[in-house]
């Protein structure tokens, strides 16, 4: 049996299958990238049929390590084989055994026709200290003549020198729905600015099977020598179909802090299994040496001279961002004064030139509140223009201009009224647009623009539902790092799924100014079709721009945005509390106890004590939010809902026990009553069963259950 293996060292797996079988003879093929063909051993099943261990991977996740391995069943006999008569086990060389499960897609793979092969993939959670070299795959046959009802056919111990990382000059075969796709690294480009390495990886995918395949929404990451993972965005992956014998290329881009050593990087490929809510390893590649990018100018500083003096400009990065039915092209620039005397900020403008043919008018945005550059000072500038989101290009040029006159010009050395724009610098590069920097879960991004210093992070996510849609919401926490009261910058937000689908989001802004070190909570939400997976969703945030300036004031309508940052979102807290104490409605918290019911003179009364508190120095716009209380009798005799608007909370009760106020307020209150006329309820008392009292967070008419408590009628709870 001849098996193609696209890995120099994977053949060592076969050595431990049956050491008594013949020697392995490697033969190098002439294809590119190189392919190693090996004659491997086998673990017999029955007759001439056998098992082969095809691949094995370990993937680090938040809860530990996940092992995945694929076996191939070779049925060389004349009758059908049933895998139900066999099984595999995963254990460590020290004797620890790990629970093995089939991937959902392989659960029905039981019959193997004569003369055919079938791949089956398993997964298992292993100890965080377990390495690939510690693992042993054991093959068994159920045998009721044995005392333990099983007979061991053989096992494969992973050799000490084995690695699942494909060398940079070789290809790895990935099975996509049973069709083989050969993947290899075509080129690796990496630039650097003051904060980030900006790597770009080109991956070649060749369909070596006989059927057209659609490539899944794989998750790509750079893995450093320390084992740190940094996500990469895939361009050209969504709905990518590859016909037999056809090769297509995808572009991956990302950002990695400059503090991370840029050596021995690997590309890790994983796939999300929605039914399991797990990411499983697909392949790993050693990245080749960095290719020198011709004409690249990202991260390089250039000088230009004007009437005012000498300036230094550096292009930090180019981004392509979603904007409604278009895309934004943005350039991030740093303008510096390296001289010893202060300089005014020149009147600059610019435009993009795509493939030396298509001109894209752009606007320059100054994000920092400064009017000059002191000696050694610098300021951040942004240039933004719009292109159709379907438009592709291979080369981009940014032309920076200086304007003479009162208004900004748009041409090259041309005059518009009393304004003349003159080219001062050109930045030319291939279309290696930088990926948007990602912020990890629980981490913050800090904006250091003078006058608007702030720290941003995602506190939590929530899902609100109705019958047809879900409302997906992220709570963004903004902390004022200035020494004065200031407004939170206006933001533009989009949710993006792992396959690149974009959902424009609304930002519920905080209108009050925020005190120094104070916080604001911004509710960011979007409507998502019911059934659409929000797994691996990320949040893209940028600073809103209106007519070339940062958006300010309630009436300003953003027409673009700059300084994009993407956040990996935490898992939603889905647990529902079984008591109504300390229910989190951040920044509020409510506790309800001493719940009792009564019926008198045809009026039903629900009575309880509550305490409502709020975290200090936190501002939030609660528009559209209600605290929803729902009462339901277990037998269906009585049900009602009562909504309390969040905006009414901040009128403090203190320790008042007055019952004339029907709204819930900050503070502590006893004997709060909700009364409902129901003359016939007294005659149904013998049918009343235990009731439930529930708290929902209601937003824009959609709701999320937070806590529910069961109680007996006419008995006051603790």
Ordered list of secondary-structure elements with their pairings:
Elements: E1 2-5, H1 12-15, E2 27-28, E3 36-39, E4 43-46, E5 49-61, E6 64-74, E7 81-82, E8 86-92, E9 97-98, E10 101-102, E11 111-112, E12 117-126, E13 135-142, E14 150-157, E15 165-166, E16 172-176, E17 179-192, E18 196-207, E19 213-214, E20 219-223, E21 229-235, E22 241-242, E23 247-253, E24 256-257, E25 266-273, E26 278-286, E27 301-306, E28 309-323, E29 326-336, E30 343-344, E31 348-354, E32 358-366, E33 372-373, E34 378-388, E35 395-404, E36 414-416, E37 419-430, E38 438-439, E39 444-447, E40 454-465, E41 469-480, E42 491-496, E43 502-508, E44 519-529, E45 538-546, E46 549-550, E47 560-568, E48 583-585, E49 588-600, E50 603-614, E51 618-620, E52 625-633, E53 639-645, E54 667-677, E55 691-699, E56 702-711
Please tell me how large the radius of gyration is. Answer: 32 Å
Taken from the alpha-carbon principal axes, the silhouette is flat
What is the averaged pLDDT score? 80
- Report, as a whole number of angstroms, the end-to-end distance: 73 Å
Beta-strand content: over 45%
Helix % is under 10%
> Would you report the number of β strands?
56
Strand count, sense and barrel status of the largest sheet are: 11 strands, mixed
- Structural class computed from helices and strand pairing: mainly beta
Instruction: Provide a count of the helices.
Output: 1
């Amino acid at each position: 049996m001849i098996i193609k293996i696209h890995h120099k060292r994977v053949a060592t797996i076969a050595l431990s299958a049956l050491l008594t079988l013949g020697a392995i003879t490697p033969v190098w093929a002439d294809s590119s990238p190189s392919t190693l063909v090996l004659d491997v051993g086998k673990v017999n099943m029955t007759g001439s049929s056998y098992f082969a261990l095809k691949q094995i991977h370990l993937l680090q996740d938040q809860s530990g390590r996940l092992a995945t391995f694929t076996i191939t069943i070779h049925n060389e006999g004349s009758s059908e084989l049933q895998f139900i008569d066999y099984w595999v086990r995963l254990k460590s060389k020290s004797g620890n055994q790990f629970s093995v499960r089939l991937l959902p897609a392989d659960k029905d793979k039981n019959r193997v026709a004569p003369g055919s092969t079938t791949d089956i993939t398993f997964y298992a959670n292993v100890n965080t200290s377990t390495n690939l070299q510690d693992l042993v795959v054991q093959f068994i046959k159920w045998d009721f003549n044995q005392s333990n009802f099983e007979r061991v056919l053989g096992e494969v111990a992973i050799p000490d020198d084995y690695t699942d990382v494909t060398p940079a000059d070789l290809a790895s075969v990935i099975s996509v729905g049973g069709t083989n796709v050969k993947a290899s690294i075509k080129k690796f480009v990496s630039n650097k600015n003051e904060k980030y390495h900006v790597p770009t990886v080109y991956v070649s995918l060749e369909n070596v099977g006989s059927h057209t395949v659609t490539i899944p929404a794989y998750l790509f990451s750079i893995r450093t020598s320390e084992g740190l993972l940094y996500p990469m965005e895939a361009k050209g992956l969504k709905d990518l179909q590859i016909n037999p014998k056809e090769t297509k290329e995808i572009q991956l881009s990302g950002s990695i802090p400059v503090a991370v050593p840029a050596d021995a990087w690997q590309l890790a490929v994983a796939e999300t299994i929605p039914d399991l809510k797990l990411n499983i390893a697909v392949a790993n590649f050693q990245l080749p040496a960095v290719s020198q990018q011709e004409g690249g100018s990202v991260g390089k500083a250039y000088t230009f001279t004007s009437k005012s003096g000498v300036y230094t400009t550096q292009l930090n990065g180019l981004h392509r961002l979603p904007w409604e039915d278009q895309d934004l092209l943005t350039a991030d620039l740093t303008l510096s004064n390296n001289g010893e005397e202060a300089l005014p900020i020149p009147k600059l403008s610019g435009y993009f030139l795509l493939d030396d043919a298509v001109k894209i008018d752009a606007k320059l945005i100054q994000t920092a509140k400064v009017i000059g550059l002191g000696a050694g000072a610098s300021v951040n500038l942004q240039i933004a223009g719009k292109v159709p989101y379907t438009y592709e290009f291979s080369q981009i040029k940014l032309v920076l201009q200086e304007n003479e006159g009162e208004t900004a010009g748009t041409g090259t050395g041309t005059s518009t009224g009393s304004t003349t724009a003159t080219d001062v610098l050109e930045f030319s590069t291939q279309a290696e647009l930088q990926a948007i920097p990602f912020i990890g879960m629980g981490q913050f991004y800090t904006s250091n623009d003078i006058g608007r210093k702030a720290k941003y992070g995602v506190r939590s996510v929530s899902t609100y539902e109705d019958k047809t849609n879900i409302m997906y919401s992220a709570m963004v926490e903004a902390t004022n790092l200035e020494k004065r009261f200031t407004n939170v910058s206006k933001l533009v937000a989009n949710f993006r799924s792992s396959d690149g689908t974009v959902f424009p989001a609304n930002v519920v802004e905080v209108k009050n100014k925020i005190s120094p070190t104070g916080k604001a909570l911004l509710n960011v939400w979007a409507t998502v079709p019911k059934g659409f997976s929000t797994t691996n969703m990320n949040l893209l945030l940028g600073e809103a721009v209106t007519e070339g300036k940062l958006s300010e004031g309630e009436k300003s309508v953003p027409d673009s945005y700059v300084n994009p940052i993407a956040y990996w979102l935490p898992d939603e807290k889905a647990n529902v509390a079984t008591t109504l104490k300390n229910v989190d409605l951040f920044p509020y918290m409510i506790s309800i106890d001493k719940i009792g019911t009564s019926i008198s003179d045809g009026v039903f009364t629900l009575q309880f004590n509550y305490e409502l508190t709020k975290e200090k120095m936190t501002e939030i716009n609660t528009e559209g939010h209600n605290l929803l209380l729902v009462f339901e009798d277990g037998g269906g005799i009585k049900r009602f809902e009562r909504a309390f608007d969040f905006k009414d909370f901040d009128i403090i009760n203190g320790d008042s026990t007055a019952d004339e106020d029907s709204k819930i307020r900050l503070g502590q209150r006893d004997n709060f009553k909700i009364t409902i006329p129901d003359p016939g309820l007294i005659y149904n008392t013998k049918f009343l069963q235990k009731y439930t009292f529930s708290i929902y967070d209601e937003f824009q008419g959609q709701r999320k259950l937070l806590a529910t408590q069961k109680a007996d009628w006419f008995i006051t709870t603790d």
